[in-house]
Every structure is written in C-alpha cells, then in structure tokens.
Amino acid sequence: MTEVALPAPTRQPVAPASGRWLPVLVVVICILLLWYAGAVGLNAPQVTERLNNLGSPWGWQDLVSAAWAMERPVLPAPHQVALDFYSSLVDNDIDSPRNLLFHAGVTLSATLLGFGLGLLLGVLLAVGVVHSRVLDRGLLPWIIASQTIPILAIAPMAVVVLGSLGYPPLVSKAVISMYLCFFPIVIGMVKGLRSPEVLQMDLMRTYSASRPQLLWLLRLPAAVPFLFASAKVAIATSLVGAIVGELPTGAQAGLGARLLQGSYFGQTVQIWSALVMASLLGVALVGLVSLAERATARLMGTQP
Amino acid sequence: MTAAASPKESATVSANANATANATANANPTANAGVSVRPTRFKLGAVALFAAVMALSAWILLQVHGSGPRAQDMPILWLALAGWAVLVALTLNRLALLQQPKPLRLLAPGLLGSALLFIWEVGVVGWDVPRVLLPAPHAVAQALVTRWDVLWPDFKQTAIAVLAGYAIGCGAGLAAALLCDRVDFLKRGLLPLAGLAGAVPIVGIAPIMVMWFGFDWHSKAAVAAVVTFFPMLVNTLAGLAATDAMHRDLMRTYAASHNATLAKLRLPGALPFIFNALKINSTLALISAIVAEFFGSPIYGLGFRISAEVARMNVDVVWAAIAMSALAGSLFYGLIALMERGLTFWHPSYRQ
After folding, report:
1. Residue A148: which of B113, B212, B333 has the nearest Cβ?
2. Do residues B102 and B227 share a domain?
3. Do B197 and B111 fall within a single domain?
4. Contact A161 B134 (CB under 8 A)
5. Measured between CB atoms, does A45 come within 8 Å of chain B?
6. Which of A95, B178, B310, B352 is the most buried (most CB within 10 A)?
C-alpha cells in the first residue's frame, strides 16, 4: 500500500550518470555504517551479559565482534542477513521450504494473479465509468471513498471465507491483492480515458466514428501512459496484499508465512532476509512494469 | 486537459496535486451538455420513482424477514427483486442528472450504496447464507451495539498507535524533506531510495518492530511512522520544487532570504502536495497499525480483534470491527480534507 494518488506520467530531467550515482552510493554507505553501529548498540546488553558470564576479561573488540555474530540478535548486522539470504538460495533445493526463492515464488504467483485480475476489473470499471453516467455519478464516489478504508482489515476475513468455500489459498490471496490494486487502476484509467482533447474527439466525430471505435482508436491509446503509471503503484500494492494475505492463515509457504514463522520463533535473521527478498521482488516487479511501459511506448511510437 | 474544460480542471491536472480531487472534478464536461430537462417536472418524476423504490424495498424486507429461511421458494420475491432492480436503475439514471445544487450530487452514490446494502441484506437473509460465511448487515449492526464494550477499547488502542505513528512519520518526513532541500547532495542521494521505498512492502517490518518495542501500541506506532515517512518525503520535495520561477524571481527582487522564501512562498506552495501525502498517509497509517497487530498485541486492538474473532468464527464481530476501522479511516481522511480546504483555499481546485 504505497502512494494511492497517482503521479502524472512525466519525465524528469536526467542528470549526468556520475552525478546521479555518487550521492546514492554515499547515502547507502552511510545507512550501512549506521546499521552496523546500531547492531552493536542494540545487541550490546545481551552481548555484555554473555561475555560477563564467560568470566574472562573482554575488550571492546570482543563486544563488537560478538554483537555482529549473534545467533538471535536484536538487530542482525548486514553481512549476517546477506549470508543467510545467500545460503538459503544456494544451500537448498529450489523447492525446499528453506529456500527463499520457493517462498518468493509462492507469493509471486498470488501477486501476479491478483494483479491480473485487478487490472482486468480496473480497466473494465473505468471503461464503464467513462461511458455510463450512472456509474460515473453513483459508483466513482464509492471507489474514491473506498481508498480511505483500511481494506487490508478484510484480509483475514477473505482468507477464511474463501477457504471454507473450498478455494485454494492462492485464490484467496489473489482476491486480496486484486482488491487492493484495482483502485489505483480505476482512478488512473478514468483519468487517462478522459485525457483526449476536445479537438481530437471532434475529429473522430467528423469521421463519424462509433463509440467502440472512439474507445479503441482514441481513448485507449491515450490512456496507456496513465495505465502504466497506475500499474506501477498497483503491482507494489498487490505484493503487499499477497504478503498480508499469508499472515492470518498460518500458511506454510510464502514470504508472509516466512515473516510470521520468524516472529514466532524469534529468528530475526530469517525475518530480515525474507524482508530483503520481498523488497527485491517489489523492485523487480515495478522494474518489469517500467520495462513494459518503455517497450509499449516504443511500439506506439510515442518516443524517439 | 482540454481547452474547453473549465480552468478549474486544467489547473488541477497541471498542478497534479490531488488525484482524488481530480477524479471527482474530472467529470466529463460534455456529458451534460446535450441534456436539457425541465427542472420541476423532472424532480417530481425523480421523487415519485424514489418513493416507489423505498416502498418496494420495505415490502421485500418485510417479506424476507417475515418468512424466514423459506424465502428462496417464493417466486414472487424473484419478481419483486427484478422489478426493484429496474426501478433502482431508472432512479439512478434520473438522480445522476441532478448536479445542482451541490448536496444533490450525494443522492446517486447514496442510493447505489444503500442498494448494495439492501441486496446484501435480502440475499443473506432470504437465501439463508450461513452466518459464518457472511453475516447480514443487521447482524453486523447488532454486533456493533452489543459488543461495544469490547470494540471501543480496541478502537482506542489502535487509534493511539495510528495517531502517534502518523505524527512521528509525517513530521520526520517533512523535516527530512526540508533538510534535503537545503543539502542538494542529500536530496540526490535520498530521493531515488525514497522512490524505491514505494516498491517495497514496508509493512513487513512489523514483526521486527514488535520485537523491538513490545506488544503494546509503541510497536504499531513505529511501523506506522516508518510507512508514512517516505510518501511525505517524496511529496514535500515535489511540492517545494513546484513554485513558479516567476514567483521565486519576485522573492529575489525583494531580496528575501532563503528562509523567508521558504516560509512565505515555497512551503505554502507545497501545501497541496503535503496535504496529498497527509491524506495518503492517513489510510497507510491505519492499515499498517492493523497489520502490525496481526503479529502480536495485547488482548485488545482492532487488528487483534479481527484476527482473534476470525479464529473463533464470530464473523459478525469481525465485520463490526472492519466497519469501525472503515468509519474511522473515512473520518480521519475527511478531517484532513477539511483542513486542506481551509488552508489551501487559494488552490485552483477549490476556486469557483
């Protein structure tokens, strides 16, 4: 559930490459340094207790190295998370529940199914809203109002109800994802379908274009940039929906289930590496949509 | 937007400050152009239709509640429902034309919402849907009243977490944006990362926050603070960059200092963007607090109530809790929208 309001599809002026990456690199390094310092600070109470119990005298080097190597730290050091992440990918088969890729795959399938359903529902609703006054005046206010509702609260409900109706967990998770991600799509598509200018609409009318032709030849192409802007927001929310959908069921597979198990058993490193996986997945999904956007733009000839 | 569209719309779109306002304001200007209706006769017809819908609805409700679980065998009910649907569609069509004065615009969505509630009630009661699957609206209302003594402390617990996290997250986001505005290097380093944060499921940090800050509301507030930080940062930075070069030049001719320009021109200019973030965050904070409660909480809180009562199959209480959080979310959002209206009255989207 990230930004609900959609940015207009505009391009920012591009800075030279070196000027773009250096600041990001510096900030990332600062965050990593802070993280290491935080790992020492937060783990210190437990570590000092353990070192005192050992009896032998210890210096600050022992404290730091012990704080960065705890088995169940309050805050694991970045390299611990990276190691756990790496070893879960390499040391286990792809279909083993110890492999994060397996969990990511389970979550990904629900995310994509939900995103597809949400895309379909959103586009259909938007086309309906643009063509029907009743839907425009009656339904659109509700779609907007529903953005203010913590829709995720319905997740446990949806999982239990759909589960008792005999649907597999994949479907109930996908339904939650769909629920979350069709709002940005409707809003963006309505805006996009209405974006053709009066002049262009009039031109179509002078060709005596029918309403389906108007939709297919003018409105839909005009809505494509808006669709992609909303799709980027929607696919990120869809991932959140799939992860949250895995929480209340006590599911065994999926990134959400991995988070929940980690929190039950106090496996902090496991939680962090699941989080890293979820973040990578989110970034990859949004990146894929961006790639699709660029490819479509090239196909449609809107970009040099 | 178009040349023919009102300046209100074109300005809103170019400012791109508020998608929600856009979507409402964007109502196709050509839609009503061809329709001319004689007002009084038209209104009389609408009122008559409305009365007919109400009467038929009342009759169906009485039938359904009176005959109990055998309602599905009554062919007359099917007939009545079909007639009802036609009547509602006709009325909606009429009501959708009513746009002046402004309060009348609420009629069409109001009727559609009530119609959906009505179908829910009649469907569940008349067709005897198991209570475990979907409770009827009247059962939810009943649960809301009878379990108020439980739900109210739940609400208070969650509300404290949401408000605290919201204030901390939005405040920190605003402060970080102001800092970024001063230090360009930081801005260029942080902005891509903040944009990346939009793609990342941040609510996932909930189990970590519960470990760090305990089961009480502090951990939920921490999640809400982290989640609300990034939208505020990104939006405020966009807002600070949104002032015209002309305006900034004017301030320079006054020899205004950086701080004076910030306080008198750029921050007020950024207000629509800041309010946009505040509105997005109001929902985000509530969602993240509720999700964080799924990971462990004391024995109250709306998220805890939802997950606990789902496990006990007390579905009506769950729906009551959902209704409560929905209402709270809408009120929160509405309050901020009102504040926005008061503080950014100069913005084109609010000018007549």
Report:
1. B333
2. no
3. no
4. yes
5. no
6. B310
Q: Is B90 inside a domain boundary?
A: yes
Q: Provide the domain limits for residue A250.
A: 100-300
Q: What's the CATH number where B263 sits?
A: 1.10.3720.10
Asked whether residue A125 is domain-assigned, the answer is yes
B21 with B53, same domain: the answer is no
Question: Which of A133, A142, A152 lies at the smallest CB-CB distance from B291?
Answer: A152
Residues B277 and B196 in one domain: yes
Q: How far apart are CA B301 and CA B216, in angstroms?
A: 9
Given CB atoms, is B214 within the 8 Å cutoff of chain A? no
Does residue B50 lie in a domain region?
yes
As a whole number of angstroms, the distance between CA B140 and CA B215 comes to: 28
In chain A, the number of structural domains is 1
What is the residue-level pLDDT of chain B in tens, covering all 352 positions?
333 333 333 333 333 333 433 344 444 444 444 444 455 566 777 778 888 888 888 888 777 777 655 656 677 777 888 888 888 888 888 777 776 677 777 778 888 888 888 888 888 887 777 877 788 888 899 999 998 998 999 999 999 999 999 999 999 999 999 999 888 888 888 888 888 888 888 888 888 888 888 888 889 999 999 999 999 999 999 899 888 889 889 999 999 998 899 988 989 989 989 998 998 899 889 888 988 888 877 888 888 888 888 878 888 888 898 888 888 888 898 899 899 888 888 877 776 5
- Tell which of A28, A147, A148 to mutate to test the B interface (max B CBs under 10 Å): A148
- My answer on whether B208 and B82 are in the same domain is no
Identify whether residues B65 and B191 lie together within a single domain. no
- B218 shares its domain with B288: yes
Rounded to whole angstroms, the Cα distance separating B197 from A30 reads: 17
CB proximity A285 to B under 8 Å: yes
Domain that includes residue B337, residue range: 146-350
Q: Is residue A60 part of a domain?
A: no
**What's chain B look like in SS3?**
CCCCCCHHHHHHHHHCCCHHHHHHHCCCCCCCCCCCCCHHHHHHHHHHHHHHHHHHHHHHHHHHHHHHHHHHHCHHHHHHHHHHHHHHHHHHHHHCCCCCCHHHHHHHHHHHHHHHHHHHHHHHHHCCCCCCCCCCHHHHHHHHHHCHHHHHHHHHHHHHHHHHHHHHHHHHHHHHHHHHHHCHHHHHHHHHHHHHHCCCCHHHHHHHHHHHHCCCHHHHHHHHHHHHHHHHHHHHHHHHCCCCHHHHHHHHHCCCCHHHHHHHHHHHHHHHHHHHHHHHHHHHHHHHHHHHHHCCCCCCCHHHHHHHHHHCCCHHHHHHHHHHHHHHHHHHHHHHHHHHHHHCCCCHHHCC
Tens of pLDDT, residue by residue over A142-151, are: 887 777 677 6
The CATH number for A134's domain is 1.10.3720.10
pLDDT digits (tens, 9 = 90+) for A27-84: 889 999 998 888 888 888 888 888 888 777 777 777 888 888 877 788 888 888 898 8
Among all residues of chain B, which has the CA nearest to that of A153? B322
A45 part of a folded domain: no
Residues B25 and B43 in one domain: no
Could you give the number of structural domains in chain B? 3
In a domain, A35, yes or no: no
What are the pLDDT digits (tens) for A243-292? 888 876 666 788 888 888 888 888 888 889 989 999 999 999 999 999 99
Min Cα–Cα distance to chain A from B322, Å: 6
